[in-house]
Amino acid sequence: MNMEEVIMGIIINAGDARAYAHEALTKANSGDFQGASTSMELADEAIGRAHDSQTSLLHREASGEKLEITALFVHSQDHLMTAISEKNLIVQIIELRKQLQPLLDKLPNS
Questions:
Q1: Which residues lie below 8 Å from residue 34, measured CB to CB, with a gap of 6+?
Q2: What global pTM score does this model have?
Q3: Which residues form the active site (predicted)?
Q4: Residue 59 bears catalytic tag
């Protein structure tokens, strides 16, 4: 697989991970914690694929292959780190929402 294909794999999978994480938050906000858990599992899988692509580049360079660092490569790393950070924050927000839900359920008209 050429460098551009690997880089695009990182970007696509990182984007998918962010989308799944935000989907999980939306589900949690509506009280669907099982659906949120399923979406977070999908986010984890997408981050895993992006990380595997990143690792393949690191292995190539460690094996002596000279890799060209392009703006697109840097962009892919930004996407991956943002996806990981957002997913980690969303996990914490969902946990807070789980703790808050019993209180919300006691409110009239909830």
A1: none
A2: 0.89
A3: 75
A4: no
Segment 5-21, tens digit of pLDDT: 999 999 999 999 999 99
CB-based contact 29:97 (threshold 8 Å): yes
What percentage of the chain carries pLDDT values higher than 70?
Answer: 99
Residue 52 labelled as part of a binding site: no
For the chain, the average pLDDT equals 94
Q: Which fold has domain 3-106?
A: Methane Monooxygenase Hydroxylase; Chain G, domain 1 (1.20.58)
